[in-house]
């Protein structure tokens, strides 16, 4: 019995092995559940082994796929090399890598010291690169053309900058460019990025309460008028591993409810609830045109 109700076919990833970093919580945990429900064997990677043990036990209750767990800080090169070797020893193959592990501490740029900057860049750029390089070098390069393989890198909706997140935004921008270059150098392995916007994931629980409250109220500025769900990211990750995405590489899929499209010049949304559009619908004339017409009339 599968507990996760995926929109995809239940045997979609039968016989495939998928590595999910950060699989012990939030989006990574949800992705692990969805992929397992679709028949994938999984290798879950994270720093805290207890979190991974819990997810492994949850999956064991609902489906019979093989799940291995690996304690590894993705910022440590030797550990990453050894972990990928360990995964291959256990599973014999890696069809897809989902580079999801990441995170940062909020801070204004002026207060970030070199160690803090490097910590976050290593967490959100170097670590993902190391995982991808090892999976490619140790397995994928030896199996090019035999089967569809992919690497998906989670970045974040921090386009045009995000106050308090300068170190992370810089790292995510780097990860996008890395994905684009890898899609060229490593083809036919497909390499893509996924950029979530504000997702109500358990990862948000790591933020202080006032910041969490502020984030929860962001729904008013998001055109879809709500935060995203973990499963709305995991569905896209499953899609990118699937044959339905076999001609998608070097791309970035945004999962953000159109948040970056809202320029905040006037309220988002159309129709009766929006006073700006409402005035157009009612044939109302914006103030500036009324003034211009009045001035012209006065000149006659
Ligand atoms: C001001 C407004 C901000 C608005 C914010 C909006 C937020 C919306 C963001 C939406 C997009 C992203 C969402 C998500 O990512 S959800 C996931 C959430 N989860 C996390 O981010 C948690 C992950 N964080 C961590 O795991 C750790 O903090 C991290 C890996 C980043 C660092 O852990 P590590 O143990 O490796 O490092 P240390 O704690 O030893 O720290 C090393 C140095 O880093 C500096 N540092 C660390 N924490 C802070 C801090 N809170 N403030 C300032 N500096 C910090 C510091 O230099 C540390 O060295 P020292 O301890 O020697 O000083
Ligand atoms: N939620 C959101 O709104 C958004 C999230 N994102 C990104 O999506 C990804 C998942 O986030 P989310 O699920 O929300 O948050 P979580 O904090 O729940 O997930 C992050 C996971 O990454 C693991 N991790 C972090 N650093 C390392 C490391 N150095 N080595 C190995 N594992 C690590 C953590 O496990 P452990 O502590 O055991 O190491 C944790 O399970 C992250 O990259 C996040 O930045 C991007 C945009 C928005």
UniProtKB/TrEMBL annotation:
Tell me where on the tree of life, at the top rank, the source sits: Bacteria
Q: Which UniProt keywords apply?
A: Fatty acid biosynthesis, Fatty acid metabolism, Lipid biosynthesis, Lipid metabolism, NADP, Oxidoreductase, Peroxisome, Phosphoprotein
Indicate the enzyme's highest-level EC class. Answer: oxidoreductase
| Region forming the signal peptide | none
InterPro entries to which the protein is assigned, alphabetical = NAD(P)-bd_dom_sf, Peroxisomal_t2-enoyl-CoA_red, SDR_fam
User: What reaction does this catalyse?
Assistant: (2E)-decenoyl-CoA + NADPH + H(+) = decanoyl-CoA + NADP(+); (2E)-tetradecenoyl-CoA + NADPH + H(+) = tetradecanoyl-CoA + NADP(+); a (2E)-enoyl-CoA + NADPH + H(+) = a 2,3-saturated acyl-CoA + NADP(+); (2E)-octenoyl-CoA + NADPH + H(+) = octanoyl-CoA + NADP(+)
Q: Which Pfam families match?
A: adh_short_C2
Q: In which pathway is this protein known to take part? A: Lipid metabolism
Localization: Peroxisome
Q: Tell me the function of this protein.
A: Participates in chain elongation of fatty acids. Catalyzes the reduction of trans-2-enoyl-CoAs of varying chain lengths from 6:1 to 16:1, having maximum activity with 10:1 CoA. Has no 2,4-dienoyl-CoA reductase activity.
Assembly state and interactors? Answer: Interacts with PEX5, probably required to target it into peroxisomes.
Q: What is this protein called?
A: Peroxisomal trans-2-enoyl-CoA reductase
């Amino acid at each position: 019995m599968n507990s996760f109700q995926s929109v995809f076919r239940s045997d979609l990833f039968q016989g495939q092995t998928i590595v999910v970093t950060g699989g012990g919580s939030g989006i990574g945990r949800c992705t692990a559940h969805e992929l397992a429900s679709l028949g994938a064997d999984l290798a879950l990677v994270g720093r805290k082994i207890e979190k991974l043990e819990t997810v492994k036990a949850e999956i064991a209750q609902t489906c019979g796929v093989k799940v291995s767990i690996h304690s590894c800080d993705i910022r440590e090169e030797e550990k990453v090399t050894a972990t990928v070797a360990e995964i291959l020893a256990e599973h014999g193959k890696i069809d897809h890598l989902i580079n999801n592990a990441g995170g940062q501490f909020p801070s204004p740029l002026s207060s970030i010291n070199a160690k803090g900057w490097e910590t976050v860049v290593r967490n959100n750029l170097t670590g993902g690169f190391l995982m991808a390089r090892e999976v490619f070098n140790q397995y994928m390069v030896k199996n090019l053309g035999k089967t569809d393989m992919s690497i998906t890198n989670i970045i974040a909706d921090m386009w045009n900058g995000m106050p308090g997140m300068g170190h992370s935004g810089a790292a995510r921008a780097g990860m996008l460019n890395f994905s684009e270059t890898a899609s060229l150098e490593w083809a036919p392995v497909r390499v893509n990025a996924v950029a979530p916007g504000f997702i109500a994931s358990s990862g948000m629980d790591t933020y202080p309460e006032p910041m969490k409250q502020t984030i929860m109220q962001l729904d008013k500025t998001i055109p879809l008028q709500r935060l995203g769900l973990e499963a709305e990211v995991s569905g896209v990750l499953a899609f990118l591993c699937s044959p339905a995405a076999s001609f998608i590489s070097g791309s970035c899929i945004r999962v953000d409810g159109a948040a970056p499209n809202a320029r905040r010049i006037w309220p988002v949304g159309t129709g009766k609830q929006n006073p700006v559009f409402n005035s157009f619908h009612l044939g109302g004339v914006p103030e500036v045109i009324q003034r211009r017409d009045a001035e012209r009339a006065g000149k006659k």
